[in-house]
Design a protein that fits this description.
The complex is a heterodimer of chains A (424) and B (97). Chain A has helices spanning 8-32, 37-63, 81-98, 104-119, 133-157, 161-188, 199-225, 252-268, 271-299, 303-310, 335-346, 377-384, 389-423, and strands spanning 67-69, 75-76, 79-80, 127-129, 326-330, 352-356, 364-366, 374-375. With 424 residues, chain A is mainly alpha-helical. Chain A has 3 domains: 1-159, no CATH class; 190-314, no CATH class; 326-423, no CATH class. Chain A has a 4-stranded mixed sheet, with helices on one face. In chain A, strands 1-4 form a two-stranded antiparallel sheet. In chain A, strands 2-3 form a two-stranded antiparallel sheet. In chain A, helix 2 packs across helix 6. The longest helix of chain A is centred in the last third of the chain and has 35 residues, at 389-423. The radius of gyration of chain A is 24 Å and the shape is globular. With 97 residues, chain B is mainly alpha-helical. In chain B, helix 2 (11-32) runs antiparallel to helix 3 (39-57) and helix 3 runs antiparallel to helix 5. Helices cover 79% and strands 0% of the residues of chain B. Chain B has 6 helices and no strands. Chain B has helices at residues 2-6, 11-32, 39-57, 62-67, 69-81, 85-96. The chains are: A mainly alpha (424), B mainly alpha (97). The A-B interface holds A 12, 15-16, 19-20, 23, 27, 71-74, 81-82, 85, 180, 183-184, 186-187, 279, 282-283, 285-287, 289-290, 293-294 and B 10-11, 13-19, 21-22, 25, 29, 37-38, 40-41, 44, 63-64, 66-68, 70-77.
Chain lengths: 424, 97
Amino acid sequence: MIDVAIPVAFLWALRWALFLGPLVATLALGYRHRHDKRRLIGGLFAFLYGLGLIFVMHQLAMALGWWRYGGNVLMLMGLPADIWLGGALLFGPALYFAFPSITPLLLTLPIAVGLHGTVFSSLKPFVWAGEGWFVGVVLVFAVAHIPAIYLAKWTARNENLALRATLLAVGYGCLAFAVLPSLIIHSLGGSWSLGTRPPWLLAACAPCFVLCMVMGLSAVQFFVIEGQGTPIPLDPTQRLVRTGLFAYVTNPMQLCTALAWIVMGVALGNFWVASASIMAWVFVQGMVRWHHRNDLLIRFPEGWPEYRAHVPEWLPRWHPWVQERSQTAYDPASVAHRWIVAWLQRRQPSSLDFVATPGTQTLSYRENDMSPPFTGVAAVAKAFNRINFPFALMGATILLVVLPSRWIISLAKTRKSAAVAGHG
Amino acid sequence: MIAALRAGNEEPLLAFPMTVVFPAVLVILLAVMPPARSREGVLMRVGTMIQLLLIVMLPAFGLYLALGLPVVFLCVELFETRLPAAVRAPIVKLLVA
Protein backbone atom coordinates (compact mmCIF):
# COMPACT_ATOMS: atom_id res chain seq x y z
CA MET A 1 0.00 0.00 0.00
CA ILE A 2 1.31 3.47 -0.95
CA ASP A 3 1.21 6.29 1.61
CA VAL A 4 2.89 9.41 0.21
CA ALA A 5 2.46 13.15 0.77
CA ILE A 6 0.61 14.60 -2.21
CA PRO A 7 0.65 18.45 -2.65
CA VAL A 8 -2.65 20.07 -1.65
CA ALA A 9 -2.92 21.92 -4.99
CA PHE A 10 -2.78 18.56 -6.75
CA LEU A 11 -5.53 17.24 -4.51
CA TRP A 12 -7.83 20.18 -5.34
CA ALA A 13 -7.10 19.60 -9.05
CA LEU A 14 -7.96 15.97 -8.42
CA ARG A 15 -11.28 17.07 -6.95
CA TRP A 16 -12.10 18.99 -10.14
CA ALA A 17 -11.05 15.99 -12.21
CA LEU A 18 -13.14 13.56 -10.15
CA PHE A 19 -16.26 15.48 -11.09
CA LEU A 20 -15.50 16.89 -14.53
CA GLY A 21 -13.75 13.73 -15.78
CA PRO A 22 -16.79 11.43 -15.35
CA LEU A 23 -19.12 14.20 -16.58
CA VAL A 24 -17.17 14.71 -19.82
CA ALA A 25 -16.71 10.94 -20.27
CA THR A 26 -20.43 10.30 -19.79
CA LEU A 27 -21.38 13.05 -22.25
CA ALA A 28 -18.86 11.96 -24.89
CA LEU A 29 -19.62 8.25 -24.60
CA GLY A 30 -23.36 8.94 -24.36
CA TYR A 31 -23.11 10.93 -27.58
CA ARG A 32 -21.43 7.93 -29.23
CA HIS A 33 -24.42 5.77 -28.24
CA ARG A 34 -27.01 8.50 -28.94
CA HIS A 35 -29.09 6.33 -31.28
CA ASP A 36 -29.42 3.49 -28.76
CA LYS A 37 -32.25 4.80 -26.56
CA ARG A 38 -32.35 1.83 -24.20
CA ARG A 39 -28.62 2.09 -23.55
CA LEU A 40 -28.97 5.77 -22.67
CA ILE A 41 -31.91 5.00 -20.37
CA GLY A 42 -29.80 2.27 -18.75
CA GLY A 43 -27.05 4.83 -18.15
CA LEU A 44 -29.52 7.25 -16.58
CA PHE A 45 -30.92 4.55 -14.28
CA ALA A 46 -27.39 3.55 -13.24
CA PHE A 47 -26.62 7.19 -12.39
CA LEU A 48 -29.78 7.60 -10.31
CA TYR A 49 -29.24 4.29 -8.50
CA GLY A 50 -25.62 5.23 -7.81
CA LEU A 51 -26.65 8.65 -6.55
CA GLY A 52 -28.90 7.13 -3.90
CA LEU A 53 -26.72 4.21 -2.86
CA ILE A 54 -23.36 6.04 -2.86
CA PHE A 55 -24.83 8.63 -0.51
CA VAL A 56 -26.23 6.05 1.88
CA MET A 57 -23.10 3.86 1.83
CA HIS A 58 -20.79 6.85 2.44
CA GLN A 59 -22.93 7.92 5.38
CA LEU A 60 -22.55 4.41 6.75
CA ALA A 61 -18.79 4.46 6.12
CA MET A 62 -18.39 7.80 7.87
CA ALA A 63 -20.58 6.71 10.79
CA LEU A 64 -18.43 3.57 11.23
CA GLY A 65 -15.20 5.57 10.98
CA TRP A 66 -13.97 3.91 7.77
CA TRP A 67 -13.15 7.31 6.28
CA ARG A 68 -14.10 10.97 6.34
CA TYR A 69 -13.71 13.81 3.89
CA GLY A 70 -11.74 16.99 4.59
CA GLY A 71 -12.64 20.53 3.51
CA ASN A 72 -15.94 22.36 3.80
CA VAL A 73 -16.86 23.10 0.19
CA LEU A 74 -20.11 21.67 -1.21
CA MET A 75 -20.45 19.32 1.76
CA LEU A 76 -23.71 17.44 2.30
CA MET A 77 -23.60 15.59 5.62
CA GLY A 78 -19.84 15.22 5.41
CA LEU A 79 -19.85 14.10 1.76
CA PRO A 80 -18.54 16.43 -0.99
CA ALA A 81 -21.46 16.74 -3.42
CA ASP A 82 -19.21 16.93 -6.50
CA ILE A 83 -17.33 13.73 -5.58
CA TRP A 84 -20.67 12.05 -4.94
CA LEU A 85 -22.10 13.04 -8.34
CA GLY A 86 -18.80 12.24 -10.06
CA GLY A 87 -18.79 8.77 -8.48
CA ALA A 88 -22.37 8.12 -9.60
CA LEU A 89 -21.43 9.17 -13.15
CA LEU A 90 -18.18 7.20 -13.28
CA PHE A 91 -19.41 3.95 -11.71
CA GLY A 92 -22.61 4.05 -13.71
CA PRO A 93 -23.08 5.50 -17.19
CA ALA A 94 -19.40 6.31 -17.89
CA LEU A 95 -18.01 2.82 -17.27
CA TYR A 96 -21.03 1.13 -18.81
CA PHE A 97 -20.94 3.24 -21.99
CA ALA A 98 -17.18 2.66 -22.27
CA PHE A 99 -17.27 -1.11 -21.73
CA PRO A 100 -20.83 -2.31 -22.38
CA SER A 101 -19.99 -5.97 -22.83
CA ILE A 102 -17.59 -6.49 -19.92
CA THR A 103 -18.99 -8.03 -16.73
CA PRO A 104 -19.40 -5.24 -14.12
CA LEU A 105 -17.49 -7.26 -11.52
CA LEU A 106 -14.44 -7.54 -13.79
CA LEU A 107 -14.79 -3.91 -14.74
CA THR A 108 -14.73 -2.57 -11.19
CA LEU A 109 -12.40 -5.06 -9.52
CA PRO A 110 -9.17 -3.50 -10.86
CA ILE A 111 -10.37 -0.05 -9.73
CA ALA A 112 -11.41 -1.27 -6.28
CA VAL A 113 -8.20 -3.14 -5.64
CA GLY A 114 -5.71 -1.32 -7.86
CA LEU A 115 -6.63 2.29 -7.27
CA HIS A 116 -8.37 2.37 -3.91
CA GLY A 117 -6.15 -0.32 -2.47
CA THR A 118 -2.96 1.58 -3.28
CA VAL A 119 -3.58 5.32 -2.95
CA PHE A 120 -6.65 5.65 -0.73
CA SER A 121 -4.63 6.32 2.42
CA SER A 122 -2.51 8.96 0.60
CA LEU A 123 -5.34 11.40 -0.08
CA LYS A 124 -5.10 13.48 3.12
CA PRO A 125 -6.45 16.16 3.65
CA PHE A 126 -8.95 15.33 0.94
CA VAL A 127 -9.92 11.95 2.40
CA TRP A 128 -8.86 10.66 5.81
CA ALA A 129 -8.81 6.89 5.81
CA GLY A 130 -9.80 5.26 9.09
CA GLU A 131 -9.53 1.76 10.42
CA GLY A 132 -11.17 -0.89 8.25
CA TRP A 133 -11.47 1.43 5.26
CA PHE A 134 -10.86 -1.36 2.75
CA VAL A 135 -13.94 -3.25 3.99
CA GLY A 136 -15.88 -0.04 3.40
CA VAL A 137 -14.53 0.31 -0.15
CA VAL A 138 -15.49 -3.29 -0.95
CA LEU A 139 -18.96 -2.74 0.49
CA VAL A 140 -19.51 0.46 -1.53
CA PHE A 141 -18.52 -1.40 -4.70
CA ALA A 142 -20.69 -4.42 -3.83
CA VAL A 143 -23.80 -2.44 -2.92
CA ALA A 144 -23.59 0.73 -5.02
CA HIS A 145 -21.19 0.58 -7.98
CA ILE A 146 -21.47 -2.98 -9.31
CA PRO A 147 -25.31 -3.18 -9.14
CA ALA A 148 -25.50 0.25 -10.83
CA ILE A 149 -23.60 -1.05 -13.86
CA TYR A 150 -25.66 -4.25 -13.88
CA LEU A 151 -28.81 -2.12 -13.85
CA ALA A 152 -27.58 -0.22 -16.92
CA LYS A 153 -26.69 -3.46 -18.69
CA TRP A 154 -30.00 -5.21 -17.92
CA THR A 155 -32.03 -2.15 -18.90
CA ALA A 156 -30.18 -1.81 -22.20
CA ARG A 157 -30.73 -5.50 -22.96
CA ASN A 158 -34.29 -5.52 -21.54
CA GLU A 159 -33.57 -8.53 -19.32
CA ASN A 160 -33.92 -9.49 -15.63
CA LEU A 161 -37.01 -7.34 -15.20
CA ALA A 162 -37.65 -8.34 -11.56
CA LEU A 163 -34.07 -7.59 -10.51
CA ARG A 164 -33.86 -4.28 -12.30
CA ALA A 165 -37.22 -3.17 -10.87
CA THR A 166 -35.87 -4.12 -7.43
CA LEU A 167 -32.72 -2.06 -7.98
CA LEU A 168 -34.80 0.87 -9.19
CA ALA A 169 -37.01 0.60 -6.09
CA VAL A 170 -33.95 0.49 -3.80
CA GLY A 171 -32.35 3.43 -5.62
CA TYR A 172 -35.57 5.44 -5.47
CA GLY A 173 -35.96 4.61 -1.77
CA CYS A 174 -32.46 5.93 -1.03
CA LEU A 175 -33.05 9.08 -3.08
CA ALA A 176 -36.50 9.80 -1.65
CA PHE A 177 -35.98 8.82 1.98
CA ALA A 178 -32.28 9.49 2.56
CA VAL A 179 -30.96 12.02 0.02
CA LEU A 180 -33.95 14.35 -0.22
CA PRO A 181 -34.56 14.63 3.57
CA SER A 182 -30.79 15.19 3.99
CA LEU A 183 -30.91 18.04 1.46
CA ILE A 184 -33.93 19.52 3.26
CA ILE A 185 -32.24 19.20 6.66
CA HIS A 186 -29.03 20.68 5.21
CA SER A 187 -30.77 23.72 3.72
CA LEU A 188 -33.63 24.35 6.17
CA GLY A 189 -32.33 22.98 9.46
CA GLY A 190 -32.87 19.98 11.73
CA SER A 191 -31.02 16.72 12.16
CA TRP A 192 -31.35 12.97 11.68
CA SER A 193 -30.91 12.38 15.38
CA LEU A 194 -33.77 10.41 16.93
CA GLY A 195 -32.19 10.23 20.38
CA THR A 196 -34.22 13.11 21.79
CA ARG A 197 -37.54 12.05 20.32
CA PRO A 198 -40.12 10.34 22.58
CA PRO A 199 -39.88 6.54 22.27
CA TRP A 200 -43.68 6.15 22.03
CA LEU A 201 -43.68 8.49 19.02
CA LEU A 202 -40.96 6.50 17.26
CA ALA A 203 -42.81 3.25 18.11
CA ALA A 204 -45.95 4.69 16.51
CA CYS A 205 -44.11 6.02 13.44
CA ALA A 206 -42.18 2.81 12.67
CA PRO A 207 -45.20 0.65 11.64
CA CYS A 208 -46.69 3.58 9.70
CA PHE A 209 -43.43 3.90 7.77
CA VAL A 210 -43.37 0.14 7.09
CA LEU A 211 -46.95 0.35 5.82
CA CYS A 212 -45.95 3.15 3.45
CA MET A 213 -43.06 1.01 2.16
CA VAL A 214 -45.42 -1.94 1.63
CA MET A 215 -47.67 0.27 -0.47
CA GLY A 216 -44.80 1.52 -2.64
CA LEU A 217 -43.03 -1.81 -3.04
CA SER A 218 -46.26 -3.64 -3.79
CA ALA A 219 -46.95 -1.15 -6.58
CA VAL A 220 -43.50 -1.89 -8.05
CA GLN A 221 -44.16 -5.65 -7.72
CA PHE A 222 -47.43 -5.34 -9.63
CA PHE A 223 -45.81 -3.25 -12.34
CA VAL A 224 -43.47 -6.19 -12.88
CA ILE A 225 -45.99 -9.05 -12.52
CA GLU A 226 -49.02 -7.56 -14.25
CA GLY A 227 -47.49 -4.82 -16.36
CA GLN A 228 -44.26 -6.50 -17.45
CA GLY A 229 -42.36 -3.26 -16.96
CA THR A 230 -40.88 -0.90 -14.39
CA PRO A 231 -42.53 2.05 -12.63
CA ILE A 232 -40.30 4.51 -14.49
CA PRO A 233 -42.05 5.81 -17.63
CA LEU A 234 -38.76 5.60 -19.58
CA ASP A 235 -38.93 1.79 -19.20
CA PRO A 236 -42.71 1.46 -19.13
CA THR A 237 -45.15 -1.38 -18.57
CA GLN A 238 -46.55 -3.29 -21.55
CA ARG A 239 -50.05 -3.46 -20.05
CA LEU A 240 -52.17 -1.09 -18.00
CA VAL A 241 -51.90 -2.19 -14.37
CA ARG A 242 -55.26 -2.07 -12.63
CA THR A 243 -54.95 -4.85 -10.06
CA GLY A 244 -53.31 -5.04 -6.66
CA LEU A 245 -53.32 -1.69 -4.85
CA PHE A 246 -53.93 -0.04 -8.22
CA ALA A 247 -57.55 -1.25 -7.91
CA TYR A 248 -57.90 1.19 -4.97
CA VAL A 249 -55.74 4.18 -5.87
CA THR A 250 -54.04 5.27 -9.11
CA ASN A 251 -50.81 6.57 -7.50
CA PRO A 252 -49.82 4.15 -4.72
CA MET A 253 -46.13 5.03 -5.13
CA GLN A 254 -46.66 8.77 -4.86
CA LEU A 255 -49.06 8.19 -1.95
CA CYS A 256 -46.40 6.02 -0.27
CA THR A 257 -43.76 8.73 -0.78
CA ALA A 258 -45.95 11.57 0.49
CA LEU A 259 -47.14 9.63 3.57
CA ALA A 260 -43.61 8.40 4.34
CA TRP A 261 -42.31 12.00 4.29
CA ILE A 262 -45.07 13.02 6.72
CA VAL A 263 -44.20 10.07 9.00
CA MET A 264 -40.48 10.91 8.79
CA GLY A 265 -41.21 14.57 9.52
CA VAL A 266 -43.21 13.60 12.62
CA ALA A 267 -40.53 11.15 13.78
CA LEU A 268 -37.72 13.68 13.27
CA GLY A 269 -39.79 16.61 14.55
CA ASN A 270 -39.00 18.41 11.31
CA PHE A 271 -41.80 20.40 9.68
CA TRP A 272 -39.82 20.86 6.46
CA VAL A 273 -39.31 17.13 5.89
CA ALA A 274 -43.04 16.55 6.45
CA SER A 275 -43.89 19.38 4.08
CA ALA A 276 -41.95 17.63 1.30
CA SER A 277 -45.21 15.67 0.90
CA ILE A 278 -46.63 18.87 -0.65
CA MET A 279 -43.89 18.53 -3.26
CA ALA A 280 -45.11 14.97 -3.98
CA TRP A 281 -48.57 16.43 -4.62
CA VAL A 282 -47.03 19.16 -6.80
CA PHE A 283 -45.11 16.47 -8.71
CA VAL A 284 -48.32 14.49 -9.36
CA GLN A 285 -50.25 17.58 -10.45
CA GLY A 286 -47.47 18.70 -12.76
CA MET A 287 -45.41 15.79 -14.03
CA VAL A 288 -47.51 12.65 -13.43
CA ARG A 289 -50.71 14.07 -14.94
CA TRP A 290 -48.73 15.19 -17.98
CA HIS A 291 -47.33 11.65 -18.29
CA HIS A 292 -50.86 10.23 -17.99
CA ARG A 293 -52.15 12.42 -20.81
CA ASN A 294 -49.15 12.02 -23.10
CA ASP A 295 -48.35 8.36 -22.54
CA LEU A 296 -51.05 6.27 -20.84
CA LEU A 297 -53.95 7.95 -22.65
CA ILE A 298 -52.22 7.41 -25.99
CA ARG A 299 -51.15 3.80 -25.34
CA PHE A 300 -54.40 2.76 -23.61
CA PRO A 301 -57.05 5.07 -25.14
CA GLU A 302 -59.99 3.02 -23.80
CA GLY A 303 -58.65 1.41 -20.63
CA TRP A 304 -57.01 4.45 -19.05
CA PRO A 305 -59.97 6.92 -19.08
CA GLU A 306 -62.31 4.24 -17.71
CA TYR A 307 -59.86 3.25 -14.97
CA ARG A 308 -59.14 6.90 -14.11
CA ALA A 309 -62.88 7.67 -13.88
CA HIS A 310 -63.35 4.98 -11.22
CA VAL A 311 -60.15 5.03 -9.18
CA PRO A 312 -59.06 8.13 -7.20
CA GLU A 313 -55.55 9.60 -7.28
CA TRP A 314 -54.88 10.00 -3.55
CA LEU A 315 -57.65 8.74 -1.26
CA PRO A 316 -57.94 4.96 -1.71
CA ARG A 317 -61.35 3.40 -2.32
CA TRP A 318 -62.65 1.06 0.39
CA HIS A 319 -63.59 -1.67 -2.09
CA PRO A 320 -61.56 -2.40 -5.23
CA TRP A 321 -62.62 -1.31 -8.67
CA VAL A 322 -62.43 -4.48 -10.72
CA GLN A 323 -63.36 -4.93 -14.32
CA GLU A 324 -62.80 -8.64 -14.82
CA ARG A 325 -63.88 -11.53 -12.68
CA SER A 326 -61.13 -13.66 -11.20
CA GLN A 327 -61.15 -17.28 -10.15
CA THR A 328 -59.95 -19.20 -7.13
CA ALA A 329 -59.74 -22.94 -7.76
CA TYR A 330 -59.88 -25.27 -4.74
CA ASP A 331 -60.28 -28.94 -3.93
CA PRO A 332 -63.71 -29.54 -2.29
CA ALA A 333 -62.32 -32.69 -0.65
CA SER A 334 -59.67 -30.71 1.24
CA VAL A 335 -60.75 -29.47 4.69
CA ALA A 336 -58.17 -26.67 4.64
CA HIS A 337 -59.28 -25.48 1.20
CA ARG A 338 -62.95 -25.53 2.22
CA TRP A 339 -62.19 -23.58 5.40
CA ILE A 340 -60.18 -20.90 3.54
CA VAL A 341 -62.85 -20.56 0.85
CA ALA A 342 -65.64 -20.24 3.43
CA TRP A 343 -63.59 -17.63 5.32
CA LEU A 344 -63.03 -15.63 2.14
CA GLN A 345 -66.68 -15.93 1.07
CA ARG A 346 -67.84 -14.49 4.42
CA ARG A 347 -65.86 -11.33 3.58
CA GLN A 348 -67.70 -10.96 0.25
CA PRO A 349 -64.78 -10.34 -2.12
CA SER A 350 -65.59 -8.36 -5.28
CA SER A 351 -65.93 -10.30 -8.56
CA LEU A 352 -64.17 -13.39 -7.23
CA ASP A 353 -65.51 -16.82 -8.23
CA PHE A 354 -64.69 -19.93 -6.24
CA VAL A 355 -64.41 -22.93 -8.52
CA ALA A 356 -64.48 -26.40 -6.98
CA THR A 357 -61.88 -28.42 -8.88
CA PRO A 358 -61.50 -31.94 -7.47
CA GLY A 359 -57.90 -33.10 -7.33
CA THR A 360 -56.41 -29.56 -7.08
CA GLN A 361 -53.41 -29.90 -4.79
CA THR A 362 -52.98 -26.23 -3.94
CA LEU A 363 -55.32 -23.29 -4.02
CA SER A 364 -54.81 -21.28 -7.17
CA TYR A 365 -55.87 -17.79 -8.18
CA ARG A 366 -56.09 -16.49 -11.69
CA GLU A 367 -56.80 -12.82 -12.52
CA ASN A 368 -57.21 -13.04 -16.29
CA ASP A 369 -55.69 -14.87 -19.22
CA MET A 370 -52.74 -12.49 -19.42
CA SER A 371 -51.53 -12.57 -15.83
CA PRO A 372 -49.72 -15.53 -14.24
CA PRO A 373 -51.58 -17.82 -11.80
CA PHE A 374 -50.88 -17.52 -8.07
CA THR A 375 -50.78 -20.64 -5.90
CA GLY A 376 -50.91 -21.52 -2.21
CA VAL A 377 -50.35 -18.62 0.19
CA ALA A 378 -49.91 -16.25 -2.76
CA ALA A 379 -53.38 -17.23 -4.04
CA VAL A 380 -54.93 -16.36 -0.66
CA ALA A 381 -52.99 -13.08 -0.59
CA LYS A 382 -54.29 -12.23 -4.06
CA ALA A 383 -57.85 -13.06 -2.97
CA PHE A 384 -57.39 -10.58 -0.06
CA ASN A 385 -56.99 -7.91 -2.73
CA ARG A 386 -60.66 -8.37 -3.67
CA ILE A 387 -62.03 -7.71 -0.16
CA ASN A 388 -61.15 -4.16 0.90
CA PHE A 389 -58.18 -1.81 1.27
CA PRO A 390 -56.85 -3.02 4.67
CA PHE A 391 -57.03 -6.63 3.48
CA ALA A 392 -55.38 -5.60 0.21
CA LEU A 393 -52.47 -4.14 2.22
CA MET A 394 -52.22 -7.42 4.16
CA GLY A 395 -52.23 -9.37 0.91
CA ALA A 396 -49.60 -7.03 -0.55
CA THR A 397 -47.35 -7.63 2.48
CA ILE A 398 -47.68 -11.40 2.07
CA LEU A 399 -46.93 -11.23 -1.66
CA LEU A 400 -43.86 -9.07 -1.04
CA VAL A 401 -42.46 -11.86 1.14
CA VAL A 402 -43.75 -14.97 -0.62
CA LEU A 403 -43.05 -14.23 -4.29
CA PRO A 404 -39.38 -13.13 -3.93
CA SER A 405 -38.76 -16.07 -1.53
CA ARG A 406 -40.17 -18.52 -4.07
CA TRP A 407 -38.08 -16.94 -6.81
CA ILE A 408 -34.89 -17.26 -4.73
CA ILE A 409 -35.70 -20.90 -3.85
CA SER A 410 -36.41 -21.77 -7.50
CA LEU A 411 -33.19 -20.05 -8.56
CA ALA A 412 -31.20 -22.03 -5.97
CA LYS A 413 -32.85 -25.26 -7.13
CA THR A 414 -32.08 -24.49 -10.77
CA ARG A 415 -28.43 -23.78 -9.95
CA LYS A 416 -28.17 -26.91 -7.84
CA SER A 417 -29.63 -29.12 -10.57
CA ALA A 418 -27.37 -27.43 -13.14
CA ALA A 419 -24.37 -28.14 -10.90
CA VAL A 420 -25.43 -31.77 -10.50
CA ALA A 421 -25.88 -32.10 -14.27
CA GLY A 422 -22.46 -30.51 -14.75
CA HIS A 423 -20.82 -33.06 -12.45
CA GLY A 424 -22.75 -35.87 -14.08
CA MET B 1 -13.90 33.83 -8.15
CA ILE B 2 -10.46 35.31 -8.92
CA ALA B 3 -10.88 37.94 -6.20
CA ALA B 4 -11.80 35.20 -3.75
CA LEU B 5 -8.71 33.20 -4.75
CA ARG B 6 -6.48 36.25 -4.24
CA ALA B 7 -8.00 36.61 -0.79
CA GLY B 8 -7.02 33.00 -0.08
CA ASN B 9 -10.55 31.63 -0.38
CA GLU B 10 -10.51 28.63 -2.70
CA GLU B 11 -14.21 27.79 -2.12
CA PRO B 12 -15.65 29.39 -5.31
CA LEU B 13 -12.92 27.71 -7.39
CA LEU B 14 -13.63 24.27 -5.94
CA ALA B 15 -17.39 24.72 -6.26
CA PHE B 16 -17.21 26.02 -9.86
CA PRO B 17 -17.62 22.67 -11.71
CA MET B 18 -20.64 21.68 -9.65
CA THR B 19 -22.40 25.02 -9.29
CA VAL B 20 -21.74 26.51 -12.74
CA VAL B 21 -20.43 23.91 -15.21
CA PHE B 22 -22.93 21.16 -14.29
CA PRO B 23 -26.15 23.25 -14.51
CA ALA B 24 -24.82 24.87 -17.70
CA VAL B 25 -24.19 21.44 -19.24
CA LEU B 26 -27.73 20.41 -18.29
CA VAL B 27 -29.13 23.54 -19.98
CA ILE B 28 -27.15 22.73 -23.14
CA LEU B 29 -28.34 19.10 -23.05
CA LEU B 30 -31.96 20.22 -22.74
CA ALA B 31 -31.46 22.63 -25.62
CA VAL B 32 -29.99 20.05 -28.01
CA MET B 33 -32.34 17.19 -27.11
CA PRO B 34 -34.64 15.94 -29.91
CA PRO B 35 -37.85 18.00 -30.24
CA ALA B 36 -40.53 17.27 -27.64
CA ARG B 37 -43.67 15.53 -28.88
CA SER B 38 -46.08 17.95 -27.23
CA ARG B 39 -46.28 21.65 -26.55
CA GLU B 40 -46.35 20.91 -22.81
CA GLY B 41 -43.10 18.99 -23.21
CA VAL B 42 -41.48 22.02 -24.82
CA LEU B 43 -42.76 24.32 -22.07
CA MET B 44 -41.48 21.95 -19.36
CA ARG B 45 -38.09 21.92 -21.01
CA VAL B 46 -38.01 25.71 -21.25
CA GLY B 47 -39.15 25.99 -17.60
CA THR B 48 -36.41 23.61 -16.45
CA MET B 49 -33.80 25.54 -18.44
CA ILE B 50 -34.90 28.80 -16.82
CA GLN B 51 -34.76 27.14 -13.38
CA LEU B 52 -31.22 25.84 -14.07
CA LEU B 53 -30.07 29.26 -15.24
CA LEU B 54 -31.49 30.73 -12.03
CA ILE B 55 -29.48 28.13 -10.07
CA VAL B 56 -26.30 29.29 -11.83
CA MET B 57 -27.09 32.98 -11.38
CA LEU B 58 -28.26 32.77 -7.77
CA PRO B 59 -25.86 30.28 -6.15
CA ALA B 60 -26.99 31.26 -2.65
CA PHE B 61 -30.48 29.96 -3.52
CA GLY B 62 -29.27 27.06 -5.69
CA LEU B 63 -30.36 24.28 -3.38
CA TYR B 64 -33.79 25.82 -2.73
CA LEU B 65 -34.32 26.26 -6.46
CA ALA B 66 -33.26 22.66 -7.13
CA LEU B 67 -35.62 21.33 -4.44
CA GLY B 68 -38.43 23.41 -5.93
CA LEU B 69 -38.03 22.02 -9.45
CA PRO B 70 -41.41 20.16 -9.42
CA VAL B 71 -43.09 23.57 -9.09
CA VAL B 72 -41.97 24.28 -12.67
CA PHE B 73 -43.98 21.29 -13.89
CA LEU B 74 -46.99 22.39 -11.84
CA CYS B 75 -46.76 25.87 -13.35
CA VAL B 76 -46.72 24.40 -16.87
CA GLU B 77 -49.68 22.14 -16.02
CA LEU B 78 -51.70 25.05 -14.62
CA PHE B 79 -50.67 27.20 -17.56
CA GLU B 80 -51.84 24.57 -20.05
CA THR B 81 -55.04 23.46 -18.32
CA ARG B 82 -56.32 26.47 -16.35
CA LEU B 83 -55.19 29.64 -18.08
CA PRO B 84 -57.64 31.22 -20.60
CA ALA B 85 -56.58 30.61 -24.19
CA ALA B 86 -56.51 34.36 -24.87
CA VAL B 87 -53.74 34.79 -22.28
CA ARG B 88 -51.97 31.50 -23.04
CA ALA B 89 -51.63 31.80 -26.82
CA PRO B 90 -49.36 34.87 -26.98
CA ILE B 91 -47.06 33.49 -24.25
CA VAL B 92 -46.77 30.14 -26.01
CA LYS B 93 -46.04 31.93 -29.28
CA LEU B 94 -43.26 33.81 -27.56
CA LEU B 95 -41.67 30.74 -25.90
CA VAL B 96 -42.33 27.87 -28.31
CA ALA B 97 -42.57 29.30 -31.81
